[in-house]
Specification:
about 325 residues, 8 helices, 8-stranded mixed β-sheet, alpha/beta, Aminopeptidase
Length: about 325
């Protein structure tokens, strides 16, 4: 084999590797669908959650319950009957809050976001932003009544944050196990995790490995669809529909779970059961230096871009 042929093979393999990781979508054609995402509702949801005191962490169960009650009451305003999934962790009672739309039978799509915070901070981006997105997507489904191919469960989780992260007591782990026990087939899980912080500052975006700087923007002004290797089809499909409607740059990555950040949320608990699961995320602490700090407040969020993320996520959900 000549050196030229060997070099050509290596180059081809590298190009294929890049395509697998980044899932490029060449078409920029926009759908004309009118999706009336209400920025004011998103803002109010974040405001209510971040003003709960003391902070809604695992120690302050009364505060967690206030957040759960708010989510339940917002779901109850819709054309659905919400429910609570209560469970025990270290002798205390915690709860997930759920509502559903679409056909009773057949596979489901799960849309989830956690409502607890880490420590004593308001948790605007992490993760009131995503809970607000979850509520707004449910409102849109209720108001617009799209023809859903799958049953859609909207789930607000407790105990995603430390000290329960990666344990059996994560609210998403409890929910995923309940689906297995009830023989429910899951088509896809969409995890909303930190969707409110963006930056136009050059160099504001960091990455877990330097190589990714060659493939992705230096400004933290995009939203990412994140999945593990082997789930390229699901990631690509979500990305394609988001790009069709959202006025924001949508990027994606398929990477090994060993890459830091790839499994840093509730979607990991659905991977454990062999289901496709993707995270819609602003890359968390690789961008937002307010992560797990008292500065993670409502004033740090960009609600215009957040509105576009929700618009794209809704369109991806109803067309998947």
């Amino acid at each position: 084999m000549t050196a030229f042929i060997l070099l050509s093979i290596i180059l081809l393999m590298f190009i294929i590797f890049i395509l697998i990781i980044t899932n490029p979508i060449l078409s920029s054609t926009k759908d004309n669908a009118s999706i009336p995402v209400q920025k004011e509702r998103l803002y109010n949801d974040v405001k209510v959650l971040t003003e709960i005191t003391p902070a809604r962490n695992s120690r302050n169960i009364a505060s967690l319950n206030k957040a759960a009650d708010y989510i339940y009451d917002e779901f109850a305003k819709l054309d659905t009957q919400p429910s609570r999934q209560k469970y025990q962790a270290d002798g205390q009672e915690y709860q997930n809050v759920l509502c559903s739309f679409g056909p009773e039978a057949g596979p489901r799509i799960i849309v989830g976001a956690h409502y607890d915070v880490c420590g004593d901070q308001p948790g605007a981006d992490d993760n009131a932003s995503a809970v607000a997105g979850l509520l707004e997507m449910a409102r849109l489904v209720s108001e617009l009544k799209p023809d859903l191919k799958y049953r859609v469960d909207f789930v607000a989780y407790s105990l995603e944050e430390p000290p329960y992260f990666r344990t059996q007591y994560m609210g998403s782990a409890i929910h995923a196990e309940s689906l297995v026990k009830n023989n429910i087939d899951v088509k896809l899980m969409i995890c909303l995790e930190m969707i409110g912080y963006f930056s136009e500052e050059e160099g504001s975006q960091e990455y877990p490995i330097s190589f990714l700087k060659l493939l992705y923007p230096k400004k933290g002004n995009f939203i990412a669809v994140i999945g593990k290797l082997g789930q390229g089809s699901a990631v690509r499909k979500i990305k394609r529909y988001m790009k069709k409607t959202a006025a924001i740059d949508v990027r994606s990555i398929n990477a090994p779970k060993a890459l830091p950040g790839i499994d840093f949320s509730d979607h990991q608990n659905y991977w454990k059961h062999g289901w496709d699961a993707v995270m819609i995320n602003n890359t968390s602490f690789y961008r937002n230096k307010n992560y797990h700090e008292v500065t993670d407040d409502i004033h740090s969020l960009d609600f215009d871009k957040m509105t576009e993320v929700v618009r794209g996520a809704y369109w991806a959900l109803v067309n998947y």
